[in-house]
Amino acid sequence: MKKSTVCMAALLACVGAAQAQSVTLYGLLDASVGVVRNPTASANQVTVVNDSAQSSSVWGMRGTEDLGGGLKAGFNLQSDLRTDTGAGNLYMFRREAHVNLTSAEFGEVRLGRTMSPAIANAQGGVVIPSNSIGVVTAAAVGVSPDFFTKNAVTWYSPRVSGVQAVVQYGFGEQAAGSSRARKVAASLVYQDSNLRVGVAGQNVKDRNGNTARTWYNANAMYTLDAFKFGVGWYRIERGNNALPSVTETAASTPDQVADFDTGMTIRSSHGYNLSVGYQVTPQDIVAATYVYNNQDAALLNIQGRYSLSKRTTAYLMFGRAFNENNNGTGADAVRFSPYFQGATGAAGVHQSVLAAGMIHTF
Questions:
Q1: HSE-CB of 152 using CA atoms within 13 angstroms
Q2: Is residue 173 part of a domain?
Q3: Which helix (H) or strand (E) holds 9?
Q4: Are 35 and 339 in contact (CB under 8 A)?
């Protein structure tokens, strides 16, 4: 009887612990088929099965624990995968790997790798955010290494009267100096039922402590009945170091390759985006977005999405990239791609894509 009582108490304790800790396996899969015109300067057309044209295909685990007194502890681990090949990234939790503490009064603090607040704000003026708009723009202007910040302390303020601030510091962990290889980013966003306005910026130091790049963005979105209107501005200022301060090789660690300015010799530039959309029904929306860069490059994206269910969305997309000859043919040229991961931007070539795909979340 005594042994049975002890066993029952242990079982109840385990059940209580499981209930207190909530862990969720989650993910998103995006796959499409696209026909690309002028995929290179010498090729006419190619048809590809592509991954993550709209949303990044990911899987992950996250959990929370109620500590009482309005305080919660949690974690998030998130990894890439490719629906076209099944491949993953160089290292597993490239996107998110952090623990956090959350309070309604003080906001949230994250310790570890997480997204840059400047990147999170970058498509605030795009009606339907898309990798074939935002990520290809980041790659074209040379800030693609800045999506996720390692060794980071990130604070998300409580939302007060619609306003939230995010501040992030990524430690460089270089013994020669605390400012070497560090990243600093911040954003400030106001949002209500009809209006969203955001500003953000990020500064990146190389391993010698020199500024690799500083960049900013500002944007707004306004909803008027079934219509949505967006506008955005961005500016990238390249540092004095035209080349990476440390030569990266195949033997370099994955975090070095992903997080520093490896090969990011693209010139300084600035530009804007204009976006308009119409909510046809609660299930489907259409939108068009134009992105301009002052280095004679531009991108047009037109798409429609239809919600087949709560977790499944079908989409049809047309994209066109305008990379003029005046943009140059060197490694520092700004070149847009019309189809994320499905085409590489080519100098002096107008490329286009017509793609259909599906997004499923779990």
A1: 31
A2: yes
A3: helix 2-20
A4: no
